[in-house]
Amino acid sequence: MNRRLPAEWEEQDGVLLAWPHAKTDWHDTLVQVQKVFVEIARAISRYEQLVIVTPAIIPAEEQLRRAGISPDRFTLYRIPTNDTWSRDFGPITVYENNQPVLYDFGFNGWGLKFAAHHDTLVTAQLAAQGAFGKNTVRVPGLVLEGGSIDSDGAGTVLTTTKCLLSANRNPHLDRHSLEQTLGNLLGVKRFCWLNNGSLYGDDTDAHIDTLARFCPDNTIAYVCCDDPHDEHFTTLAAMAQELRALRTIDGQPYQLVPLPWPQPCFAPDGHRLPATYANFLIINRAVLVPTYGIPQDTAALETIARLFPDRETIGINCRPLINQHGSLHCVTMQLPRGVLS
Length: 341
Hints:
There is one protein chain. It contains 9 helices and 17 strands. The chain is an alpha/beta fold. The protein has a single domain (about 5-335), classed as L-arginine/glycine Amidinotransferase, Chain A, CATH 3.75.10. A 4-stranded mixed sheet has the order 1-5-6-7, covered by helices on one side. Strands 4-3-2-17 form a 4-stranded mixed sheet. Helix 9 (about 295-305) links the parallel strand 15 and strand 16.
């Protein structure tokens, strides 16, 4: 069977969002966080469809309409959720003989850290309500979060050992077995593993979408700490060395583009938050970039704009999101071409 895991910059039908509500971790900052979601939804709706899950249809619909988002640009599904990190419980789509197949991997709250009994059922309930039409949905019986892998669309996946080999995800599979199993499911020929790199405040065990991302033309954008006094300096320097050692499928080094290092952001209780510019979302004809209201935002937007010269670069203030240790890419999941049509 000819299977392929597409790159994020390939054509999409839409993006999945899980709307924040009072029973999520956002209950104390719900108004501010819903404003962030409205801005994300507004930007996405300019280019493609929105699929939104929420336990309460009317409040979400009213917020979207007040924001001027046309009703023909979004579809709401009444589905209960624990939280809003759809990157990690949404479907992962492959092309099988050029037809989309959606995988409903298990989601266990990033290795049993948080409740996920509603979130892990979202993909199945979307399928049951007809969101994906007649497309095939499969349940592989493995735990896998979308933020833990990044694809170049040509058979190579970038990931981290700290996350994928976590004892609380798929303890019955060692590295070799996991490569074989996921390689077959996703049509992946090569896994590029990073042993180093993580952000303080991160709950995901070093998701790759917080650290390094494939971009077109054999390019990898990565977080780079240029402050030797910063607590991240040593591990991110080691990660950069690993990236320099990686080779493309043709045996050539990747073009590496460092992303600006954001000044530290802290929660009210003083712990450091995982601000990262690697958590951008690529959609049709645009790239949405998280910003944090700090001086490095401008340089980050300029850097990512150079990586995607054929797309509009749109900054979204995600400072409220990192209070719960995630950012823009984490709250979205792209639905590739054919998934909705």
